[in-house]
Design brief:
- There is one protein chain.
- This protein has a single domain (5-222), classed as Class I glutamine amidotransferase (GATase) domain (Rossmann fold, 3-Layer(aba) Sandwich), CATH 3.40.50.
- 23% of the residues lie in helices and 28% in strands.
- It is built from seven helices and nine strands; from the N terminus they run E-H-H-H-E-H-E-H-E-H-E-E-E-E-E-H.
- The radius of gyration is 22 Å and the shape is elongated.
């Protein structure tokens, strides 16, 4: 058996507490449903963290042992402390994987790490969605056929204000006519990022086997297996440098105007 992938599933965990219809679907929270599924998969160990825990559950110690962070948020993006966002960004740049689900497109960490507004069109009318698999040989789509069909979803539509993905994995069509880039991957620093659109809190999407297969595949893909420092060191030469005919300062500036010939 290979190395165990340590996943932390983060959820703001507010809708489930405040809205009865969401609580009926996810009585123990969206994060618990995702984590329970991942824990049933070979080689993955999933823990959870939520907004109202100290440091939002994302302490230095938690993030240091997290290989892949899954992020779900919706109604409380602005309540995430900037210091925690800084901490998560640093870990992604060092090699931690990041999977952002559905309305996490407007989270501080996603907008920070992509450098764009990440805005989009939306409509909640329980529409049919068909996610077309554009990358059938990619590790994220392993076990997924030509498309995934969801009978009732919230619509997200273009224009989605994101940088051009390194690879477009899924594109969605909605009953109302819109399309959307619903599965996108990027690399930032040493870390891998996957955005996956499905997952509105009032629909049982995280009980869908195909959706959870994609999330599981994405966790395996996003796991780099290493942490590399995000720094900018002053490097010593590997070889012996040749002597210089004039006296240069450390920044390459000639120390005396008489040496300029």
């Amino acid at each position: 058996m290979g190395e165990t992938i340590n996943v932390t599933v983060w959820n703001e965990y507010r809708h489930e507490k405040e809205h009865e219809e969401v609580r009926k679907l996810y009585p123990h929270g969206i994060h618990r449903v995702i984590a329970d599924y991942l824990n049933s998969q070979e080689g993955i160990k999933a823990d959870t963290a939520t907004l109202d825990e100290p440091e939002h559950g994302l302490t230095e110690e938690v993030l240091s042992r997290t290989d892949v962070l899954i992020w779900w948020g919706h109604m409380a993006h602005d309540q995430v402390e900037d210091a925690v966002v800084d901490r998560v960004q640093k870990r992604v740049l060092e090699g931690m994987g990041l999977i952002v689900l559905h309305s996490g497109h407007f989270s501080k960490i996603f907008r920070r790490i992509l450098g764009t507004n990440c805005s989009l069109k939306w409509r909640e009318e329980a529409e049919k969605e068909r996610l077309w698999n554009l990358a059938p040989t990619h590790p994220i789509t392993r076990g997924i056929g030509e498309y995934i069909e969801l009978p009732n979803t919230e619509m997200y539509g273009e224009r989605f204000d994101i940088p051009e993905p390194d690879r477009l994995i899924f594109v969605s069509w909605f009953e109302g006519g819109e399309v959307f880039r619903s599965g996108c991957v990027w690399e930032r620093g040493h870390g891998r990022i996957f955005y996956f659109r499905p997952g509105h809190e009032t629909y049982p999407i995280f009980y869908n086997e195909q959706i959870m297969t994609v999330i599981t595949n994405a966790a395996r893909w996003a796991h780099t297996g290493m942490t590399l420092p995000d720094n900018c060191p002053n490097s010593k030469p590997l070889e012996k440098l040749s002597p210089k005919s004039v006296d240069f300062g450390s920044a390459g500036v000639v120390q005396s105007r008489e040496d300029i010939g």
